[in-house]
TrEMBL record:
Keywords: Kinase, Transferase. Coiled coil: none annotated. Residues 141-317 form the Carbohydrate kinase FGGY C-terminal domain. Pfam families: FGGY_C (PF02782). It comes from candidate division CPR3 bacterium. This is Carbohydrate kinase FGGY C-terminal domain-containing protein. GO terms for biological process: carbohydrate metabolic process. Belongs to the FGGY kinase family. The lineage of its organism: Bacteria, Bacteria division CPR3. InterPro entries: ATPase_NBD (IPR043129), Carb_kinase_FGGY_CS (IPR018483), FGGY_C (IPR018485), FGGY_Carb_Kinase (IPR050406). One of its GO terms (molecular function) is phosphotransferase activity, alcohol group as acceptor.
Length: 372
């Protein structure tokens, strides 16, 4: 969630010619080097790669597929900023055994294979078996992203387009970067003992209000809006509204933000039919049904909601059993559990409210643009 490296991201965007978000690796590296000089740095690691190194692995950077280099370590861009190549561990393919566990403070047994895995969103794609066109992984967490598998070459407006786990396919993504964080923020300001369960219960009990809106952009936004200065808002707030009403508005606002991304996908490529959620919100029936109604698409949950964990298990299975393909591993590890289909009357009223949300978002973007 650290997006403080705004200036550095802007510099990288100018050099690379591609949008670069402050939360990406290289922007953070440049930010750190304003504090520490390179003489004090041995290697730069992401969190999971550093943990693997501490447990006994060789220094490594996980490269999901060719084409991801500009968003991880990019030699051409590094050279422009005077960064030496030895600062960045060499790339390895997920599924590669990069070492075995040595003596460690976690008391793990010795000599367990350490296997390079995927970043969170690709692990969730693998763990929900979204490995063919027509499937979207909805990765919930502190942020929430829709990741759609497509075989189309077209570059959609504003969305991330990167190689999929399966060669020949593409992953299109976008979403709400402060979804779970917005819920956490609301729980903290509601009252001392207000929990996620309290939030869901209040949102469920609150009546539908066509005029109360929440823009969930509490820390700017990445794809598809690409606006680091965008702010969150309550709109239509009155003295008559309660904590329950605000909880429902926050939840609806997050899902409207997802719908904005989903409609971008549908405008540019084949309309999708199945969304598979993953993460801490994926196991809450009320939220799944609300999401189906707002997006207007069928949701299919898995027996185990933690898609990222399952995806890491799938790539580990591939790593220790080379004869098993990633497709087979993902297909065997994901078990469909429940379906949620749009309810006609609910969908119609949310279609109308999404139109109001879209206009409010356009207005917010224009206000931000006009602000000196």
């Amino acid at each position: 969630m650290d997006r403080s490296a705004v200036t550095e991201a802007d510099d990288i965007t100018k050099v690379s010619g591609k949008p670069y978000d402050p939360s990406f690796y290289l922007a953070k590296v440049l930010r750190l080097l304003h504090i520490y000089n390179t003489a004090q740095v041995w290697k730069f690691f992401s969190g999971p790669e550093y943990l693997a190194f501490l447990l006994g692995a060789e220094p490594a950077s996980y490269l999901p597929a060719p084409g991801y280099e500009p968003y991880i370590w990019n030699k051409n861009v590094h050279e422009v900023f005077g960064l030496e190549e030895h600062l960045f561990p060499p790339y390895v393919e997920p599924g590669t055994v990069i070492g075995t566990t040595q003596k460690n403070n976690l008391h793990l047994p010795l000599n367990i294979p350490i296997i390079a895995a995927y970043p969170d969103f690709l692990a969730a794609i693998a763990g929900t078996d979204c490995m063919r066109p027509g499937l979207i992984c909805d990765r919930t967490g502190s942020s929430e992203t829709l990741n759609a598998c497509t075989d189309q070459e077209k570059n959609p407006d504003g969305l991330f387009k990167l190689p999929h786990l399966i060669p020949g396919f593409w992953n299109l993504s976008g979403g709400v970067s402060t979804s779970g964080k917005a819920i956490d923020w609301f729980c903290r300001i509601a009252h001392e003992h207000y929990s996620l369960e309290s939030f869901v219960e209040d949102a469920y009990r609150a009546p539908f209000d066509p005029n109360l809106l929440f823009l969930p952009y509490l820390n700017g936004e990445r794809a598809p809006l690409w606006n680091s200065k965008l702010k969150g808002q309550f709109i239509g707030l009155s003295l008559n509204h309660s904590t329950q009403d605000l909880a429902r508005a926050v939840l609806e606002g997050i899902l409207f933000g997802l719908r904005y991304t989903y409609e971008k996908m549908c405008n540019d490529i084949t309309i999708y039919h199945i969304v598979r959620p993953s993460g801490f919100l994926a196991d809450i029936p009320y939220i799944n049904q609300l999401k189906a109604n707002i997006l207007g698409v069928t949701l299919e949950t898995g027996l185990i909601p933690e898609g990222e964990l399952l995806g890491c298990a799938a790539v580990a299975l591939k790593g220790i059993s080379p004869k098993i393909t990633l497709i087979d591993a993902c297909n065997n590890i994901f078990t469909p559990y429940s379906l949620y289909t749009p309810q006609k009357n609910e969908k119609e009223k949310y279609d109308e409210k999404f139109y109001v949300f879209s206009n409010a978002l356009i207005h917010a973007l224009q206000n931000e643009k006009d602000t000196p």
